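Hey, can you fold this?
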Amino acid sequence: MKRVGRLTLMALLLAAAGLCFAGNASAKEPRISKETAQCLDCHEGMPGIVSQWEDSAHWNAGVGCYECHKADKSDPDAMEHYGFQVAVIVSPRDCGACHPREAAEQEASHHAKAGDILNTKDGLLGQTIGGEPAVAVGCRQCHGSIVKVREDGSLDPATWPNTGIGRINPDGSKGTCSACHTRHRFSKEQARQPESCGKCHLGPDHPQKEVYEESKHGILYRAFKDDLNMDHPKWIAGEDYYDAPTCATCHMSATPNQGVTHDVGTRLSWNLRAPVSKRTDNWQQKLDSMKDVCSACHSSPFVEGFYQQLDAFIGLYNDKFAVPAKEIRDLLMEEGVISKGNFDDEIDWIYWELWHHEGRRARHGAAMSGPDYAWWHGIYDMAKAFYNHLLPKAKEACEKAGKPEVYEKILAKYIDGRPEHQWFTKGFDPKRIEQIKKYYKERYNQDVK
């Protein structure tokens, strides 16, 4: 139930005195604590924050500023603030005092580990090839900073503000609930909307938001957004809504057979991030959980057919492009054709974008029913990079290094003996060309040259 209007100073005083001011004049337990009333007395000068909180479930539950921000003197980020010990950051560990299950699921999730990527080649690209200021406002705003506390108890502006989902907090906990449930409403309704995920899940290497918008799911969401009842407390697919799913529907929200989860990996049976896709741990159980979500709207043959197509697509990605490309690059390094340094050869960049950009777009397009991302932004771009950039550059590098036999080895192992690559060395099959011409003639009554 949303509260209408602004808190007045009189209402705060009444609350502190133990009177209810939620439309009932009778004496009851105070809506807010006397500590929070003092916070509000000063922070009325920040009307946006106060108004957001007034419209929150926290307000209705009597949870205020002090209940969330109170700290112990021993806390690393504790500071004295007008007679109170408080901390600016409300960490998942703090939220877990009232929401223990949600906090535990989040801490165990892939989201909480998002900061680990900053110690990989992604981090090298940002910090070395880009620069620290770019990392602070770019990479870490999604993956999370390691928040540092200065000697005076304030937070280091090089690491804060930050709501990255894998943020390391001063108390050692990982992540931030406000990455999805934005301060200070902490709204379920807002977190259920795909735009919440779009802060991080978009762009050339992980365009889930764009893929979703292209898909039938995204089209239906835009058409029937106002009918999805996203403010309902339980929000079960097929019961509370049925017109369209959002990101939360598939990855986190309840079905008639399973509850809400804050571990976003519990329904993912493939790793679509890695250079070569592999099944995740307990993949069959995770697949069954996701199929259960799909079954809220789709028939069993439809669901089974979709996953057969997805598995075949990932097999194509792995076998035709990802594995050969990785092994070709590794062979060039082993043979001394290119160095073993990172991103000091053009082939390093070609290979990186082949799997990290085109390959991810392809796989997410297939997994989320985005045909243009599966093909034109995905496999087509991968094929172009593989045939038109990687292989010619490999040949050029071998010749420049005086080792043309290495390229011959590449052709013999990865290209010539593989029927899916024969067009590259022998051209298109004439019989296949004639079949295409016949198809166009029969379907479109049109000759193709």
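Oh, and this one too while you're at it.
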Amino acid sequence: MNAHFQSIFALATPMGRSALHLHRLSGENVFAILSPYILSPHNKKSVDLVSLAKKSEGRACTRYVYIIDQEKNEIDDVVLTIFPAPKSYSGENIIEISVHGNPLISAKLQSLLRSIGMRDAQPGEFTQRAVLNGKIDLAQAEGINQLIHAETLGGVELARHTVDGVLSRETGDLRAQIISILAYLEAHIDFAPDEVGDYEPASLLPQIHAVIERLNKLHATFSSGLKMREGVKVVLLGKPNAGKSSLYNALLRYDRAIVTHIPGTTRDVLEDRLVIQNKDFVLLDTAGIRATEDEVERIGVERSLQSALSADVICLVIDIHKLDCSQIHDHILSEIIQFFSSVKLAEEQKIIPVVSKQDLLTDEQISMLHEFNQNFLKLTKDLEYKNCLNNNLVLISSVNTELLCKNLVNHHSLIIGEVSKKENPTLISVRQKDKVLNAINSLNECSKLIAIKDYPEKIASLINHSKHSLEEIVGEIHLDNVLDKIFSTFCIGK
């Protein structure tokens, strides 16, 4: 297949002044095309890259050389690395050239490459060639793209798992199970009962249900994976002056939100990324929740409550430092109940009651909080959303958020589940999710036909459709428009 591809090149590092610019070239004849323009720094003779590749016995090989233009003028002294096919990223012969990071030098090099018959690469064309040449499959290619564009540590981790082939192996295993089901049907389509036995489609149901269960589990990873890639959403809610903005700044470790003694200082939702123990969160600070005649503040309160609906974890911040000890238990329960009455929560959401301003509390107040915690489950057992509640109160101050961070990390692990483990496959694109859903729907329809003992041809057609959907995840397709759409989102030079 390589012979049909024109040699291509691209700048693989960002344009602009820097220490180096790396150019990547790929093509069957790229060594022969470039050799006349590569000189040894010692004797100024041309370096035969074809011979160098043969001497390297297929291994990557690096040389310090000069590169010249067609008029024999020196373009730059460069570090040149060859990657002979098929042991290269694209499966073709590849050259990487590191020039000094001046855009003018890169422009001269690119002008030379165009003049000797190469063309500028399209977005993702190197990776597309890797797929077409069988170096990687389409799922791994999507993993590479996400590896480059991931904005969180979790996103990098999931992309790495996909590049390593975890999802590809899972789809391969599922495909093998489906083929074994299909074999039974094909046998009863092609041969008479006295050769293969009576047609008993119900005997296939346990296998089909096992595949559906496995596919449903895989389909569910998309949602968890999305949270891992984007970050678990944590919203700080509470009444004005409860200490939300101070907590927001303390978690971020810099003064992001304005903090004053004036109630209602925060009027809008603030959002930032937060990383705790390599776990990714999206942290939101919100306006204090209260009835108000101020139009701007009222809009802020509405946005606060709206943020709660999409939160994974809600930190309900409560201030008790001015209360008598006898009021503490009732006040905390009242705050929780008022919050529950103001929003409609989903079962999977988590609420952590956070008592703020620990540094302002008396020993007696802290003792009362410890007593509340000891009876927390008993005191909250009749509340509407008790299953969403954390198992205890969390005390924090503007300088000590350690306990809250520990709770957030624990909730992160519960929300993400098994997705973070390297051995567990995860769907990382909507395309992959849709293909799995198509496979599930086909198998469910297949089960209905089996229940009425429909013709094996009809059942086999649905099984085949399920198999094809899984094959499309890893790229066992020949649709150029699908490939072009996927690779158009890649970087030039990748």
